[in-house]
Design goal:
The complex is a heterotrimer of chains A (126), B (446) and C (219). Chain B has 446 residues and is an alpha/beta fold. Chain B has 21 helices and eight strands. Chain B folds into three domains: 129 residues, Fumarate Reductase Iron-sulfur Protein, Chain B, domain 2 (Orthogonal Bundle), CATH 1.10.1060; 150 residues, no CATH class; 123 residues, Rossmann fold, CATH 3.40.50. In chain B, strand 3, helix 14 and strand 4 form a beta-alpha-beta unit. In chain B, helix 5 crosses helix 7 and helix 13 packs across helix 14. The radius of gyration of chain B is 22 Å and the shape is globular. The mean pLDDT of chain C is 96. Classes of the chains: A mainly alpha (126), B alpha/beta (446), C mainly alpha (219).
């Protein structure tokens, strides 16, 4: 068989696998999950700069929000805090539990925007 | 052991009831009747049973037909439902006349309605009930085996199973009374005694060719000093073959006549001989058709009756029966009425040595005669024999452990086992409980 | 993929749950209505005592003669049904999703145990398949629908297992997993999987007849 065709097939196969299995490990960055005692899943994949660039996010408080009386404050943000400073491990009052907060914050937006990872294993890769 | 003693050629059964009935069928009539029965007459049970069955095959080993045919699945309970009811449901009644013929033969002669499978289905699906629905369809199509249809006709005309005419009945009783008076001069068979404690009822074949059973019963009643009577009118026969042909209307007429006869005589209860299907008809099926949750008049089967007589000391045993005996648990009074422990009590009181056959009690194998199968007559006898090889094996095993006499307190069991006894040359002595009780009881010096 | 995921995990999931619960309710109510209309006498024979006597015998492994006659099948079928029901309800991932959607949550089983239970379900399905194919008494009464039902039950567990391990085609298996789970939910009330709904009733009725009228065991 023509070597070029073989090469082409190989390229197509490889890119297919690359698309399916995502980006290579070494480029990955993860969310810090040390606050969880015994995390059941792998830490979530997250590349801050790349994410904000792709998602065209200008304001920090898109994600690093501050809520007061159940309303998101437009001109305040919380990037100097850890998520776990506000969110406990369990729901308390209006405040979501930490895990739920992470999920809602990331996945909630991804579902709304119809972009970005939404399935468990897309963030929590093995 | 597995082989019958004599090889007999099996021929295709010719049954005029089925052939002629099939000839009269038209596709429209078949469809109409099937729809009327499945959609009109049947209800939630049929629907739940059909929808719930997961086709697991776990009912198979309950069935003596299946076991006797080397586990051939076509004989399993669900296999028989598949060949009959499922097909009718699938084709919405558009089945052929030939199909109805085969179906009638399967439903009438390849299932004894013994309900052993109901104990093996994890969901408790009542396959015997499904088979009765199939028989009902065949009945309404006029495709029922000739011999059993004849008994249903007899029921319809005479209110007894054996075409016993009005005067033959009291004549037979009088004859047995006279016979028994040779043994006990004061013995009476009281006819039409209003307000007696007990109305004693028998099955049609009793006066026809088992008159000695009436004799024995009269002796037992007299020695026990009971206030009893028998009716001189139709209504004396407690048997009911219409229940097994799917002819519910006639079944209802028979049972009504029986109950009304007891009511007319103002008796406290009905005591019946050693018959299983008659007990089923009075205690479980016929009464329901008439709208009685339980029978309107208390019923006692011979087993309970003997149990009572022995317990109350009304009958005393002179010398126990010496031969080693074993006991056939009939479906209708054991799986159907839980009389197995009382029966064992009676057996132990009247016999020296009793050994169990296995399986026993509710799990005993069917005799392959009940449910109207033996009543379908000679054309199916060979099939009946081949289809209960497992019973022959069970009996052979208990015989090899020493049992000489087989007690079968049910007419169908008795006759069916007698056939098996001959066909497989088992050489056992088959008796009713009453035979032995009569033999061993204390009687006044004569 | 996101749109597809949003669809199967959103509107389709709602539909599946509504059809499942509504369908189950509908089937049970309509069968009881049919009893009421045509076989009212059944009520008069029902007995709590004998119903439970019968059900208890049949939901305990080896408590009945027929369970004892088929020890392997008994072990498999009990393990299968227990895992089939427990696994999806007490799986952490499911609980998280329900928590995020409906704010309800309960305790979960460790993932390692759930893996084993999933494998038990899949293995049992293989066992049932082989039994259907080779045991004559089962094969004889088997039709295409029996294989379809088996596939419907096995599919969510196989795809769930594949999705959990993320070996390949993660998104594909996840979406298929959700979808097949929904297919199973919808199928329960409207196929012979409805034995889940009806078997307690048929068992109870047989138990009542055996206890109350027949004075005999039905196990």
């Amino acid at each position: 068989m023509d070597k070029r065709i073989l090469f082409l097939i190989a390229v197509v196969l490889f890119s297919g696998i690359a698309v399916i299995s995502g980006y290579p490990q070494e480029e990955m960055e993860f969310l810090d999950n040390s606050v969880f005692d015994k995390p059941v899943r792998t830490p979530s994949v997250f590349r801050h700069e790349e994410h904000n660039e792709t998602a065209a996010i200008e304001e920090c408080n898109e994600c690093h929000h501050i809520y007061e009386n159940g309303k998101k404050m437009d001109d305040e943000s919380s990037e100097d805090q850890r998520c776990s400073d506000c969110h406990d491990k369990k729901d308390s009052g209006n405040k979501l539990a930490l895990r739920k907060a992470f999920h809602k914050n990331c996945k909630g937006c991804h579902i709304q925007q119809n972009k970005g990872p939404v399935m468990c294993g897309e963030c929590h890769r093995r | 052991m597995a082989e019958p003693a004599k090889k007999v050629e099996e021929k295709k059964v010719i049954d005029e009831g089925l052939e002629k009935g099939t000839d009269r069928l038209t596709p429209d009539r078949i469809e109409k009747v099937i729809k009327q029965v499945l959609e009109g007459e049947s209800g939630a049970r049929l629907k739940a049973y059909v929808d719930t069955c997961i086709h697991c095959g776990l009912c198979s080993e309950a069935c003596h037909y299946y076991l006797s045919h080397d586990n051939d699945p076509r004989w399993s309970p669900v296999g028989k439902v598949k060949q009959t009811l499922w097909e009718m449901l699938k084709k919405k009644g558009r089945v052929s006349a030939d199909f109805i013929r085969t179906t009638a033969e399967i439903a009438s002669t390849e299932c004894n309605l013994c309900k052993r499978c109901a104990m093996y289905c994890p969901f408790g699906i009542d396959i015997a009930y499904l088979m009765l629905i199939v028989r009902r369809i065949c009945h309404r199509l006029g495709v029922t085996p000739l011999y059993i249809q004849d008994t249903a006709h007899s029921h319809s005309v005479t209110m007894n199973q054996m075409w016993v005419k009005g005067d033959e009945w009291p004549d037979t009783l009088q004859w047995q009374e006279e016979e028994a008076q040779a043994e006990i001069p004061t013995l009476r068979i009281p006819l039409e005694k209003e307000g007696a404690d007990i109305m004693y009822s028998v099955i049609g074949p009793g006066p026809k060719f088992q008159a000695q059973l009436i004799y024995q019963a009269a002796v037992i009643m007299n020695i026990a000093g009971l206030d009893w009577t028998m009716p001189a009118t139709p209504g004396w026969d407690n048997s009911d073959m219409a229940m097994f042909t799917g002819d519910n209307e006639i079944m209802g007429r028979i049972k009504r006549t029986h109950f009304e006869t007891a009511a007319r005589l103002k008796v406290k209860r009905i005591v019946m001989g050693e018959c299983g299907h008659a007990f089923r008809s009075i205690q479980d099926v016929g009464n329901r058709w008439l709208g009685w949750r339980m029978p309107p008049i208390p019923i006692a089967h011979a087993i309970e009756f003997y149990y009572e007589l022995l317990k109350e000391g009304k009958i005393r045993v002179a010398k126990k029966y010496a031969e080693t005996v074993t006991f056939q648990d009939p479906c209708n009074v054991v799986r159907g009425a839980g009389l197995h422990e009382k029966a064992r009590d009676v057996v132990n009181q009247i016999c020296e040595n009793f050994i169990e056959m296995h399986p026993n009690r509710e799990h005993n194998y069917c005799c392959c005669a009940g449910g109207g199968v033996i009543n379908c007559g000679p054309p199916y006898k060979l099939k009946r024999m081949k289809s209960n090889r497992i019973k022959a094996e069970q009996l052979f095993a208990v015989k090899s452990r020493g049992a000489k006499t087989l007690i079968a307190p049910c007419h169908n069991c008795h006759s069916g086992l007698e056939d098996i006894n001959h066909h497989y040359e088992l050489g056992m002595d088959i008796k009713f409980l009453g035979d032995i009780l009569y033999e061993v009881m204390e009687k006044p010096e004569s | 993929m996101n749109s597809l995921y949003n669809f199967v995990s959103g509107p389709l999931a709602w539909m599946a749950f509504i059809i499942f619960f509504g369908g189950c309710l509908f089937r049970i109510i309509s069968i009881l209505a049919l009893v009421h209309k045509k076989e009212k006498f059944i009520y008069t024979y029902m007995s709590w005592k004998y119903s439970f006597r019968s059900i208890m015998h049949w939901i305990i492994p080896f408590a009945t003669v027929n369970w004892r006659k088929h020890p392997v099948l008994t072990l498999v079928t009990f393990a299968f049904h227990i895992c089939l029901i427990i696994t999806p309800i007490f799986l952490l991932s499911h609980i998280i999703l329900w928590d995020e959607s409906w704010n309800v949550s309960w305790w979960s089983l460790p993932d390692s145990l759930v893996q084993v239970m999933t494998l038990i379900v899949i293995g049992s399905c293989v066992f049932f398949l082989i039994r259907r194919l080779i045991a004559p008494e089962v094969q004889y009464v088997t039709s295409a629908s029996d294989y379809i039902i088996l596939a419907i039950v096995a599919a969510p567990f196989i795809t769930g297992f594949m999705a959990y391990y993320q070996w390949f085609g993660y998104q594909f298996f996840t979406i298929l997993h959700i979808f097949s789970g929904e297919v199973m939910l919808v199928a329960i009330p409207f196929t012979r999987l409805s034995h889940m709904l009806f078997s307690p009733f048929t068992r109870a009725y047989m138990g009542s007849e055996f206890g109350g009228v027949r004075h005999a065991r039905d196990w």
